[in-house]
Structure formats: C-alpha cells, structure tokens
Design brief:
The complex is a heterotrimer of chains A (328), B (307) and C (303). Chain A has helices at residues 48-55, 82-91, 110-121, 126-139, 145-149, 158-170, 188-205, 216-222, 240-245, 250-257, 297-301, 319-327; strands at residues 4-17, 20-33, 37-41, 63-72, 75-76, 93-96, 176-180, 208-213, 225-230, 233-239, 306-308, 314-316. Chain A has 328 residues and is α/β, with parallel strands linked by helices. In chain A, the strands form two sheets. Chain A has an eight-stranded mixed sheet, sandwiched between helices. A four-stranded antiparallel sheet of chain A has the order 2-1-4-5. In chain A, helix 3 packs parallel to helix 6 (158-170), helix 4 crosses helix 6 (158-170) and helix 6 runs parallel beside helix 7. The longest helix of chain A is centred in the middle third of the chain and has 18 residues, at 188-205. Chain B starts with a helix and ends with a helix. Chain B has helices spanning 2-28, 34-39, 45-54, 61-73, 87-122, 127-141, 144-158, 174-199, 203-210, 215-252, 258-267, 271-299, 301-304. With 303 residues, chain C is mainly α. Chain C has one domain: MetI-like (MetI-like fold, Orthogonal Bundle), CATH 1.10.3720.10. Chain C is 72% helix and 0% strand. Chain C contains twelve helices and no strands. Chain C is elongated, with a radius of gyration of 23 Å. Classes of the chains: A alpha/beta (328), B mainly alpha (307), C mainly alpha (303). The interface between B and C is large, with 58 and 48 residues.
C-alpha cells in the first residue's frame, strides 16, 4: 500500500449566497499517495477546482470549507491558524493555475515574483535567492534564464509564462503540487511540452501532483489514479488503466464515448443528453439520473452511496448492486 | 519610449496653440466695442481713439493674433487695463499664494483620500468601509463655497482658532486648503477603494496568496501597485479642478491668488488680465497632465514597451 | 463571519447568476437595485420631489419671488415666512422654490446637450479612427485643459449674461468628458467579435454604430448623466456665487448663497438653506448614480 501524502476526508465546500446554499463540493474524499500523480476529471462546474482550492484554503467568499478533514501527512490543514496555513502555502503545497497571463502580476518582473516565493519561506539574501530562481528556471526548461528573469509577463509567450508559474511552484521544493487545468489555455504543442515537464519533475524530485482537468486525454497521459466528479460528488475512481479500459459508471462511459477516435469516425458523434443540473436545485435521487441511459426506478428516489468494486475501483451507483443481486 | 514622449510633447504644443487661439478669439468676439464696454461712462472720442491705437485694435485680426503670440513667447502678457501694472507682475505676486493653497489642499486630499480608500477596500462592507465611503460621498457632494463658509463661520468666527481671512501666516491657509481639498479627497477615496477592490479579485492575487504571502504583503506589494495607476490619472485630472476650486476658496477667504485675480478681471472687463490668468492656469494644467502621462508610462511597464 | 453569509455586492450576484445560467435583463437589474439599494431608490424619489417642487413653485407659495416687504427684512424663520426673509424682505422659501427651477434646469438641460454632442463625437472618433479621431481628441484635450470654472467664466464673458449663455457655457465644459468615455467604449466595442462578424457580413458602418455600439454605451451614459447633472448644478452655483451666473431679480440657489454671504454672521440661514438644498440634490444624484453603477456595471474608471 502506498504511503499517503494527502488525504481529503468527506470535504464539503459550499457557496453561501442570498439565494441559497450551493454545494459545490459535497462530501468528497480522495487520497494522493507519495510520488504519484492523481487526477480529478469532470465538466465545468463539477467542483474539481473548488476541491483543489479548498486544500489550500484559497476559496473566495461566499464560498468556504464547511466540513471535512484535509490531512497532509497526518496534519489537518483545516484546523491550522492563518499564519500556519501561509507557511504551508508555497512550501509544502504549491499550486499552478489555468491562465498564466492573469496569474502573474503585470507590473512586476517575473524573476522578482518567483524570488518572492522563496523569500516568503526562507531567510536568504536577495542575490542568493536570485541565483536559486535562475537555477529553477533552467530546471523547468526556460532558455536564457538570466535574461528572462528581467522580463515582464506580457513579454513572454503563454508557454514560457506557464513555465514561470511552474518554477514559482517548484522553487520551495514542495511535497505536493496542485495543477488546476495547467494546459487548458495553451496550444497543443506547448501543452505536450508542459505536461512532459510536470511528469519529469515529479519523477525526478519525488513530488506528488494533483492534476485537475476536463481533458480526458491529459488525464490518461499523466495520471496514475483518477477521480471522476459530477455535480459536486465523486462518481467513479480507480487506477488509470482500469478506469479507461473498464469504466463502470454511466457518466464515465458517456465521457469516454464522446471522445472521437480519428481512425474510426462514427456516423454521428456520441453525446450525453441533457445538461448539468443547477446545484441549488438538485433532484431527489442521483444527480445524473435524468441523463443516464441505464437509470432504474431506485435512482430517482435515493441518492447512491459509494460501492467498492475491488482493486481501488469504486463507483457511486446502484447498478453494481443490482447486477450482483441479479447474479444471485 | 523616447518616441512616445516626443509624440506627446508635440500633441501638447498643438493643444497649447489651440488654447491660446481659443482664449484670444473668445475674448475678442464680444458683441459691442471692447473699449466702450470697459470704459463705460468715461468714454469719449479722444480716449477711444488713443486706446484703440495703443491696443492694436485697429489692425486686422490675424496681425493682432501674431503680435499676441509673439508677446506671449517673450513673456509679455500685456498690461492690465484697470490696475495699470504688467500682467506678468500681477501673476507673479498672486501665483505663490495659489501654489501654497493648491499644494496644501492636494496633499491633504490625496493622502487622506488614499488612506481612507485603502482601509475601506480592505475592510470591504464593514463599518469602516461604510463610514469612509459616506464621508467621501459628502466630500464629493458639498459645494466648495458651502464648506468654506461653514468652516469660516464655525472655526474662524465662533472658535477663533484661525483668522477669518487673509494669509498673514501659514495658518491662514488651513481652512481654505481643507475647503478646497475636501472634494478631491472624496473622489480619490472612492476611486482608490473601487480600483483596489477590483484588483483584489484578480488571479495574480491568488498566486500571491498561494505563495504564502501574508495579507499585508498581498495588498501592498501586489494590490496597490496595480490599483495606483488609475488613481494617479485622477490626481492629474484634479490639478484642473483644484484650480477651479481655488477661485472660490480665494474669493471667500480673501486670498490674493490667481483665482481671485481672474474673477476681478472678469467683473472689471479687464481683457489682458483675464487673458493672462486663464492662459497661465491652462498652461499649468497642460504641463501637469504631460508630467502625469510620463509618470504613467514609467509606472506601467505594459505601456512602456508599447505592448 | 456571520456578516459574510450573504452576497452583498450586486456585481457578484450578477456573476453568480451568469454562472447559474439565469437571465439578467435591464428590468431584472433595476429590480435588484430596488431590492438591495434602498438608498438609491430613496434618492430617486428625492430628486423627483425637488423636480415637483420646482415645477409647482407658483402653486406652493403665496408670494412672488420679487415681492419685497422691507419692514420684515432679515427675519428668522417664522410662521409667516417659513424660511425667513432676505435683506430686501423677500420670502426665502419662495426664492428657494423658484431658484430650484433655475438650478435644476441648469443641471439637466446642458448635461443633455453635452451628452448628445459627446456621444456623437465620441462614437465617430472611436469608430472611424485616424485623422478624425486625432482632431476630435485634440479638441477635447483643448477643452479639458481649462479649469472648468475658468472656461465657463470666459464663455460667459463672451456671450454676455443670461440663462442661455449659462446653458451653452456648461454644455461646452462637459462634452469632452463624455466624448472621451464614449470613445474608449467604442474602441473596445469595435474589436468585439459581433462587430467584426457584422462587418464581415457587409453591414453598413452606420447601422453597426446605431445597432451594436450605441446600445452598449447606454449603461455608461446613464451613470454619466447622474454624475454630470450634479456637476453642472455645482458649476452654476459657483458661477452665480461669483456674480457671473444668474443675475437678479432672477433667483438661483448659487445666487442666494452669494447674496446671503454678507449677512453670514447675523442671518446665516440665508446662505445655509440654499447650500443645503444644493447639497441634498447633489447627494441624491450621487447615491442614485452609485446604485445604478453597482447594478449596470459599466467600466467607468474615472469616478
């Protein structure tokens, strides 16, 4: 059994608005083992980003963590004081975001911004810190690092900016890096480079990574273990091979079916009918019921719990229980 | 960067030229004869003829304009009709007072305004926020003369803390400066708050927090650096409104400044004096805007490299 | 933490509404403002109240604004004269009501005029670009280089006394600010995809401006209006205060303040009452403008 670096237990992060409470993350549990890459995949609005931001408590109000435990090597992050949380941010856990252009301060040189990450956590003199930054720049594949140190964000390409963000995330040698849609805003060729870089860094430094994406291809390429989320809940989880070869949940099956394989072009593209429900007006039973091709009567009235299929493969559905009952 | 400064200077010169033309034209197309208007009942044929010759009013329009431009460039703003002194002398006497007043007002306004705005933004929706924004609204809504008169009545007259009018010592400037800066402080506070609130929603603030930066660090190092840009633009625009307000403040507190000079010039129909004061103040505004523009270029690297 | 349980800021509500996929029309926005911002709604009523007072002035007072009663000059507020009398025995309340007509008219009419000019020139400048843009912007720069009060003074000097002169003077001082804002909005809108799409389909520029650019400028215009009207009222009162604006025997609030100044120490109400009136109207417009800006969210950065 792998040693667990991060354990999220029954996390609930809600939006508390005037019109009602929106359960963006509703009882989510997940684990990231040391040295592995774990992915969270799902459509926009399923709660994957909120989960990631909850770990570091970066939620903007009116959202906040309502319940649950977030254990980093046994330490519950939700119980820390603000000062202690600040220490964790950047040093033990770091995060990279989707939009590298808006994630960097436009009026400060990039080198200085990365240097700030070091100086927040370690006492070092500025020249020494600068050297370390240039070293990390080289590590993440930024050419002419001394020159790039003096550049402003708008002077760099999208790929370079994301490398700067990765450098910023790496510079304190964190145990876990959370990557929230790191390549969504980048061209396909650059995306490939960045993904390769992240994988490389994890392999060489033993760092774990929590990768968030809506792109199944990215998830398949990078991750060891995958969680599929829908409407704020985990609906299926398993190691990457099992999940992609033998998906069990109708939603996962639907997602995989909608990927177009260029060597076998279908007559019509496969889609999942219907739309994601409004989180504030969720139906009585399973949230996916109205769009599910295998829905049963019980799905409309009861919410399914997690069902363990063995070997780390778990789904939130009534189907396996039905099938087992049918076999008997 | 040199190129953009050069371009801006050229634009400024064009504007300066148009401004002087506009002043010149406006003051001379008054219906009726300028001299008779000015002299009123004392006009008689000889005086009119003499003055017409003296003031070049018999020459064609464009000649008058060229003489006017030449004079300005050599620093000759003409002689005041009613005070019989060179306009430049009058301006030189009045200018220091206006400067002292305006600078004092600006410092009060900008410092207080920014501090209130920052606190209000950071404590958004709390009591301090509402209090400060309430005051700012008051600042923007109350006319200068009302503030001036209320201050004059209560603090100078009733409490005798400072003189009612005149500027025998620097304390005489306090009340007029407050009256003048009150309005600007309100605007600056409101703008600082709204820009800072907007900036604090940006993604790079999240990045800063994710790096482990403390609240103060996030606000000052990342928030303010970006929020200050529009605020500085507003400060530059306020040079103009401060000069407008100075007119009123100087009148109420009987300060011998350029504003009061302009008002006197109008009521006495003293064209050279009016021309001189308006031209002078306009030049100050234009130069101020140019400096602010260059400052903005320095502070925002995106503009610097023409991105 | 209890305070933060609910969304206060209507801009955030709008974002959340978009996130949740709900519609958000102009009427919805007005309803939201009415619900969230009681102050703004109250201010709207205050403005209507003053407008009503101004229009019905003759009906509300038995005196005419010229009636003099030298025996009771400078009397304090009493049953006979609700706000007292001025130095010539004229009823202050009457002069206040008639003054409201002038002050409000001078606030609203030149602002409308300056908006029409500003919108036309701003949209043309922003959309056409090139030399036209340069010329119009230089013209705006020239106007904006003058401290507004001084420019108004010079124009008043040229045009002579009279209410029309004041209208013209104030319209000329305000149009440039409007033009600048509208121009920058137009520039942004010109680059939007739907304008590009319209152009690529051969739609005439004029139609594009009318149908795509102008409607998107309306929120900014509404907010600008609520900002420029109080500015015009303040300018007129400043001009009248200096003796350059409205002249006797007409009445405007600024003029009343000026006339009352001499008696500030023994009859302070003469100046303070009209000043208070100015302040109330300006405050009301500012509150309303703030409320509208919160809900319409046009990106106006210069106050």
């Amino acid at each position: 059994m792998d040693e667990m670096l991060l354990e999220i237990k029954h996390l609930k992060s809600y939006f508390f608005t005037r019109k009602g409470i929106s359960p963006a993350v509703d009882d989510v549990s997940l684990q990231v083992p040391k040295g592995k890459i774990v992915g969270i995949v799902g459509e926009s609005g399923c709660g994957k980003s909120m989960t990631a931001k909850s770990v570091m408590d970066l939620l903007k109000y009116p959202g906040r963590v309502a319940d649950g435990e977030i254990l980093l090597e046994g330490r519950d992050l939700t119980k820390l004081s603000e000062k202690e949380k600040r220490k964790v941010r950047g040093e033990d856990i770091s995060m990279i975001f989707q939009e590298p252009m808006t994630s960097l301060n436009p009026v400060v040189k990039v080198g200085k911004q990365v240097r700030e990450a070091i100086l927040n956590h370690q006492k070092m003199d500025k020249a020494e810190a600068k050297k370390r930054v240039i070293e990390v720049f080289r590590q993440v594949g930024i050419s002419e690092p001394e020159k790039r140190y003096e550049c402003y964000p708008h002077e760099l390409s999208g790929g370079l900016r994301q490398r700067v963000m990765i450098a910023m995330a790496m510079v304190c040698r964190p145990k876990l890096m959370i990557a929230d849609e790191p390549t969504t805003a980048l061209d396909v060729t650059i995306e490939a480079q960045i993904l390769k870089l992240i994988k490389n860094l994890c392999d060489t430094t033993g760092m774990s990574c929590l990768l968030i994406s809506h792109n199944l291809g990215v998830i398949a390429q990078m991750c060891d273990y995958v969680y599929v989320m829908y409407a704020g809940k985990v609906v299926e989880q398993g190691d990457v091979f099992t999940l992609f070869d033998h998906p069990q949940h109708p939603y996962t099956k639907g997602l995989l079916a909608s990927i177009i394989h260029l060597d076998e072009l279908p007559e019509r593209l496969s889609t999942i009918p219907g739309v994601v429900p409004n989180l504030m007006h969720l139906p009585e039973g399973c949230a996916f019921c109205s769009r599910c091709s295998e829905a049963m009567e019980c799905c409309k009235i009861k919410k399914p719990e997690l069902h363990d299929l063995g070997d780390g493969h778990v789904i939130r559905c009534f189907l396996p229980a039905e099938r087992e009952a049918a076999h008997e | 960067m040199l190129r953009s400064i050069g371009k801006r200077v050229l634009q400024t010169l064009i504007v300066l030229f148009c401004v002087s033309l506009m002043i010149f034209v406006l003051l001379r197309i008054i219906p009726g004869d300028a001299i008779t208007t000015m002299m009123g009942e004392h006009a008689n044929a000889d005086t009119i003829a003499r003055l017409t010759k003296e003031m070049n009013l018999d020459k064609p329009f464009y000649v008058q304009f060229i003489t006017y431009l030449k004079d300005i460039c050599t620093g000759n703003f003409g002689t005041s009709y009613t005070l019989n002194k060179p306009v430049t002398e009058l301006l030189a006497a009045a200018f220091p007072n206006t400067v002292k007043l305006a600078v004092m007002a600006a410092v009060i306004a900008w410092v207080i305004g920014m501090v209130c705005g920052i606190i209000a933004a950071v404590k958004k929706d709390g009591i301090l926020d509402r209090l400060f924004m309430g005051f700012s609204l008051l600042g923007v809504s109350v006319p200068v003369f009302m503030v001036a008169m209320v201050l004059q009545y209560f603090i100078a007259y009733k409490l005798h803390w400072v003189d009612i009018s005149g500027v025998k010592s620097w304390t005489g400037f306090i009340l007029p400066a407050i009256a003048l800066g009150w309005n600007s402080a309100g605007s600056i506070a409101r703008l600082t708050r709204s820009t800072l609130v907007e900036v604090l929603q940006e993604d790079y603030i999240d990045t800063a927090k994710a790096k482990g930066l403390g609240r103060g660090g996030v606000i000052i190092l990342h928030g303010l650096r970006n929020a200050m840009l529009p605020v500085i633009t507003m400060m530059a625009l306020q040079i103009s409104s401060l000069l407008s307000g100075a007119v009123i403040s100087e009148t109420i507190f009987s300060i011998n400044g350029i504003g009061r000079l302009a008002v006197d010039a109008i009521s006495r129909r003293d064209i050279p004096l009016l021309q001189g004061t308006v031209l002078f103040t306009t030049v100050i505004v234009i130069v101020g805007n140019l400096i602010a523009d260059c400052l903005y270029t320095v502070l925002d690297p995106r503009i610097r490299k023409g991105a | 933490m209890k305070k933060r349980e609910h969304l206060e800021n209507t801009a955030e509500q709008e974002a959340l509404a978009a996130q949740l996929g709900e519609s958000d029309t102009f009427i919805d926005k007005m309803k939201r403002m009415a619900a969230d911002n009681k102050l703004a709604v109250f201010s709207a009523f205050v403005i209507l109240f003053f407008l009503l007072l101004a229009v019905c002035a003759p009906l509300l007072t038995p005196y005419s604004f010229e009636d003099q009663d030298l025996l009771s000059r400078l009397s304090a507020p009493s049953a006979k004269h609700l706000l007292g009398t001025d130095e010539l025995g004229r009823d202050v309340l009457t002069r206040l009501l008639y003054g409201a007509r002038v002050s409000l008219a001078v606030g609203i009419i030149p602002t409308i005029a300056s908006m029409v000019i500003g919108v036309l020139l701003g949209m043309i400048s922003g959309y056409v670009g090139g030399i036209v843009d340069a010329v119009i912007m230089r013209l705006a720069d020239v106007v904006l280089s003058f401290p507004s009060l001084l420019l108004a003074m010079v124009i008043m000097y040229t045009l002579g006394d009279g209410i029309t002169s004041i209208f013209i003077a104030l319209a000329i001082t305000s149009w440039a600010g409007v033009a600048r804002v509208i121009r920058s909005e137009t520039l942004t809108l010109r680059e939007t995809e739907y304008v590009e799409a319209a152009r690529s389909m051969g739609v005439k520029d004029f139609t594009i401006i009318l149908r795509h650019v102008f409607p998107n400028c309306i929120p900014s215009l509404i907010v600008l209006f609520t900002l420029d009207v109080p500015s015009a009222i303040l300018s007129e009162s400043a001009l009248s205060f200096l003796g350059i604006g409205v002249q006797l025997p007409n009445s405007s609030w600024g003029l009343m303040v000026n006339m009352g100044r001499t008696y500030l120490y023994n009859a302070p109400w003469l100046s303070l009452v009209p000043s208070a009136a100015i302040m109330l109207v300006v405050l009301a417009f500012n509150f309303l403008g703030d409320g509208l800006r919160d809900v319409l969210d046009p990106h106006l950065k210069n106050s």
